[in-house]
User: What shape does this take?
Amino acid sequence: MRPTPPASAAPRVSVVVPVYNKGRYLRRAVDSVLAQSFTDFELILVDDGSTDDSLAVAREYTDPRVRVIRQANSGAGAARNRGIDEARATMIAFLDGDDEWVPAFLDQMMALVREYPHAGLYCAPYIYVEPGNVRIVPKLAGVPERGILPSYFRSVAGGGQVATSTSVCIPRAVFDSVG
Assistant: This one.
C-alpha cells in the first residue's frame, strides 16, 4: 500500500462526489474511494443542500484527503461544477453519492492516462445494480478492450454508454479549455 500524500501537496486526482439526500448510501461510496489501491487523491464531497443526514455522514470522515463543502440546493450539475472549482489535482474523477468503485478503479484510470496521455476523457466499464437487476453495461460498439474511441456518437449508437457520473476521469485542462 502506498503512503497517503501530505495534505499540502497537490494530489494527482480529485474525486468529486455531488451529494443530495444520499445519507443511507454515502458511507459505501466514500469507503469505496478510501479503499482505492491508488491513494494520491483528494475526495471532495459537495453537499447540495441535503435535508437528510448526508452532511452529518460526510463530516464523520477524518481522513485528511476528504473535504466537505456545503452549498444551497442547486442540482447535481452545479454540485459537480463546485467540486471541479475546488479541485486541486490535474485529473478529476466523478462518483455519485449512491455509487461505489472497485478498489482498483483509480489505478486503472491512471494506467489509461499513462498509456494515452493526450486523451480528453478516460472511462471504464461499469456494472449497473438495482434491486432485482444486475447487469454489466455493454461495451461501446467498435471499441477494442483498450484504446482511443474514434467516434463517441457512433459507438453509443450500438447500445453502450459512458457513465460520466461514475466511471470517468477527465484532465483538468479539458475543463479549463471549455469552461
